[in-house]
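Sample entry was shown:

___
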Amino acid sequence: MNKFDVYQKQRAKLVEKNLSKYISKIKNAPRILTDAMDYSLQAGGKRVRPILLMATAEAFGKKAQDVLPAACAVEMLHTYSLIHDDLPCMDDDDMRRGKPSNHKVYGEATALLAGDALQSLAFETMLSDEAVKAVGADKAARAAGALARAIGAYGMVGGQIIDLAYENKSADEEIIREMHRKKTGALIRAACEIGCIIGGADESQIKAAQDYAESIGLAFQIVDDILDVTSDEKTLGKPIGSDADNSKSTFVTLYGVKKCVELVNELTDRAVNSLNVFSGDTSSLKELAYSLAKRKN
C-alpha cells in the first residue's frame, strides 16, 4: 500500500467514524428512520467528496479534524442523492455498493424520507456549534451557502431533471456535459470550494480549485460511463448496462470506449495542472485525480 492509499484509507475511516457519531446524536426520532439513514451512510464507498474537501483544506494548512463537520455534511448529501437516485421513479436500481438499495430494504416511502432527513442533518452538521468553533461563523456560513447552491436547482437536482428528461431520447455532447456538470460535478466542485473557503484561499485559488473539480468531476462521470459497459456487477457493486436499459445517451454512446479513455486522461492532466497556483502541498489532490481516473468500481 503506497503513501496515498494509506492517506485515503485513514481519511475515509475518519469520516465513517464521525458519520456514525452524528447519527447516534439524533434523539426522539423514529428508529426505522435513523436505521435507514445509517444503512446507506455505512454502505461503504470511496468517500471521494469528503476526502476532496479535507485534502483541499489541508493544502492551506488546515487539519482534517477541523473540517470534519463539513466533510461529513458533504457525504450525507451525497448519500441522500444516491438513495433518491435508486428509487423506482428515478433510475430504479435494486443494488448499490453490492447491497440492496435503501428502498429495497426499508420501502420507498421510508427511503425517500431517509434521504430528506440526511439533507436536513447535513446542514445541521455544517452549522453546528462544533463546526462554528472549528472554522468560525463566517466561514461556516459561506461553506453552507456553497453547499446549498451545489445541490439545488442550479446543481445536483437540476442535473437529475435533465437526466430524466433525456431518457429514451438522444442527447448531444453539450447536453450531456451540462447534465453531468450539475448532477455529478456540482457536489465535487462544492467539496473543493468549501475546502478553500475554510482554508482561507483567495479568489484565484478558489477558481483554480473549481477548475480542478470541474475536470475530475467530468472525468469521474466518463469513467462511470465506461465501467457501465466494460465492468461486471460484482466488481461495480450495482447493475451494469443500466444506461443502455434506460436508453440514456452517454459519452460512450457518443464516442466509444477508446475515445472516452483519452478524454479521461486529458481531463486528469488538466485538473493536476490547475493546481499550480497553490503554494501548499497539493500531492494528495493530484494523487486523488490519478486514482479516480484509474478506478475499477
